[in-house]
């Protein structure tokens, strides 16, 4: 009995979509949701002021950052308007780890929603959910509520600033008990 090309293609499509659904379910179960109702960004962002060096103060733990400490992010503007992203951290074994990517603004009205790509065609959401008026801290997330970063310009923010930052994340609906605090 001969199998038609259409039947093989259909079977392959079903297998591929099933594999993709399985992979997505495995990824999502490894990343618990800390906010079921992520709000829209609270403020517009002046990209020129947002650029520069940031220290990760706390995050929701993710596989790609497991074991990282002293994590930083650097943002610089390319001439074409895209943003260079350089993330860096030190692993427990003292090895440095760097990831380079490119971001693009997807909400030109507020500049608070970006798409970031670190490899291949895959992009992730990067929402600047809130920030200090003086750009001394920012809260970054994305629509699923599975990722959260608390960033500051100072690697050792004052206790009252840290408490305020955590309280603001809670006000935005995030489960702050899931935060992993970085050491610098």
**What is the string of SSEs from the N terminus onward?**
HHEEEEEEEEHE
- Percent of residues in helices comes to 10-25%
Uncertain segments: 1-29
Q: Provide the CATH architecture of the largest domain.
A: Beta Barrel
Strand order of the largest sheet: 1-2-3-4-5-6-7-8
Per CATH, the class of the largest domain reads: Mainly Beta
User: Helix count?
Assistant: 3
Main β-sheet description:
8 strands, antiparallel, barrel
Radius of gyration: 19 Å
What sort of overall outline do the alpha carbons produce when their principal axes are compared?
Answer: globular
Structure classification: alpha+beta
CATH topology assignment of the largest domain: Lipocalin
The figure for the number of domains is 2
CATH superfamily of the largest domain: Calycin beta-barrel core domain
The end-to-end span amounts to: 66 Å
Fraction in beta strands: 35-45%
Q: How many E-type strands?
A: 9
Structural account:
The protein is an alpha+beta fold. It has two domains: 1-30; 47-181, Lipocalin. The protein has three helices and nine strands. It has helices spanning 5-30, 47-50, 159-171, and strands at 52-60, 69-77, 83-90, 96-105, 113-119, 122-131, 137-141, 148-152, 179-181. An eight-stranded antiparallel β-barrel has the order 1-2-3-4-5-6-7-8.
Question: How are the secondary structure elements laid out?
Answer:
Blueprint: H1 5-30, H2 47-50, E1 52-60, E2 69-77, E3 83-90, E4 96-105, E5 113-119, E6 122-131, E7 137-141, E8 148-152, H3 159-171, E9 179-181
Antiparallel strand pairs: 1-2, 1-8, 1-9, 2-3, 3-4, 4-5, 5-6, 6-7, 7-8
